[in-house]
Design a protein that fits this description.
Elements: E1 6-12, E2 21-26, E3 29-36, E4 39-44, E5 58-60, E6 63-65, E7 72-74, E8 94-97, E9 100-105
Antiparallel strand pairs: 1-9, 2-3, 3-4, 5-6, 6-7, 8-9
């Protein structure tokens, strides 16, 4: 990402319990946040196969399953785990600052 990208607070740390996920919107970007054993990760929230929010699906260990056609993605890498997934989803830099979860987004 470019140097002019910005960290944006999108949720409070307490809003996502261990083993849960949450969808947030930053501008026009839909982002999925995941809590995997206390570590927070972020990806695009839209499935690369069809228009569906990954956060409407199911979390299974370190993978998320799309609610429409059971496509699965590795949360840490965004890697699609096979058909019907045509491509990976983008991972988004994330950090926790105090009680806030922040993601790094492109400056407008």
């Amino acid at each position: 990402m470019a140097d002019n990208d910005a960290w944006v607070t999108v949720a409070e740390r307490a809003a996502i319990a261990d083993g849960e996920m949450k969808g947030v919107t930053v501008g026009s970007q839909e982002i999925a946040l995941y809590n995997l054993k206390g570590e927070i990760y972020a990806t695009d929230n839209l499935c690369s196969h069809a228009f569906a929010f990954l956060t409407d699906g199911w979390l299974d260990g370190e993978e998320v399953e799309c609610p429409l056609h059971a496509g699965r993605f590795e949360i840490k890498t965004g890697k699609g785990m096979g058909p019907p997934i045509p491509c990976d989803v983008k991972t988004i830099p994330v950090r926790v600052e105090g009680d806030n979860i922040q993601v790094k987004v492109a400056a407008s």
